[in-house]
Amino acid sequence: MRFAAMVLEKFNKPLELKQFEINDLPQGYVLVRTLASGVCGSDVHIAKGEDPRTPVPIILGHEGVGEVIKIFGEKKDLNGEPIEPGDWIIWNRGVVCRKCFWCTVAKQPHLCPNRKVYGINMSCKDHPHLFGCYAEAVTLLPEVEILKIPKNIDPAILVIAACSGATAMHTLDSIQESLTDKTIVVQGVGPLGIFCAVAAKTMGASRVVVIGGSPERLSLAKDFVDVALSRRELSEEERRKKVLQLTHGRGADIVIEAAGDSNALLEGLNLIRRGGIYLIAGVAVPQKPIPLSVYEHLVVKGITLHGVWVSDTEHLVQAVHIVTSHPKVFENLITHRFKLDRANEALKCVEERKALKATICFD
Ligand SMILES: [Zn+2]
Ligand SMILES: [Zn+2]
Prior knowledge:
Rossmann fold, Quinone Oxidoreductase, Chain A, domain 1
């Protein structure tokens, strides 16, 4: 069987359409026909060589939903259901070693130094090549964790669960206390920020405030958050006053950085109350250091600063649940759909922030 894929041969060059021949695969592999592939903000950085993990050549795309073509041997999903040809599935984009200190002792497998990620650090030079979702098919290693999904949902919507959704659930999972009675500020209204906001409301947060720039994204967020603050219409000081007004002058209990910009911390640290929790979830590639006053920003206020790196298996399962129970919210998020051979346009569209969420769709 031949499958087309868009390959990044060199950083900062357009992806090229290539064909791959896949016949027999080793025992345990699952061959999946791609139904939808998410175009992530990090793909733009990866294509420019800004992610230190990424080799070339590579097929981009770490957010996939697909239909099983063939299982080489037998395989069950995370619920113990046998996987069969024709099943619709989503999978954990990361594959960890289950042997290292982080996988076994610390029980933090997302920090596994041997973690392989589809579309991020698995080159298509290696057999059987289809290790990214900007392709008509994906070859899933025997270790890949798979979850069957219902067929009554648009697969383009579910790609959000694969990366930003799972990371959002990891972010909220890192808060070891009840969200009831809490005010949460989410900085950024991209897919990650919107997912954090929807999930926080679902998990009982009493008030969710989002801060963003794009009027389209903010108006979408207004449907399910309590307060949406525009960076274009309000100054930083005005935004701070709004948050203080909402919290009896204390500041937010929890702030989530989902803007993908380290500079967001300089505002966020002024929005958080004494003893609050700050989760940094959006920064996914190396960035310039920021001027931070450790005494004033962190110590005196007794703030817990928590970096959130990628996600674990349970977060994917939770994210799929959130998407399937709020399909309408996430349907509105998919603003652009591209065919595979237009993946370069899709990347440009995401880079120029025209899309809320862009996907690559297949016939
Ligand atoms: Zn992503
Ligand atoms: Zn490991």
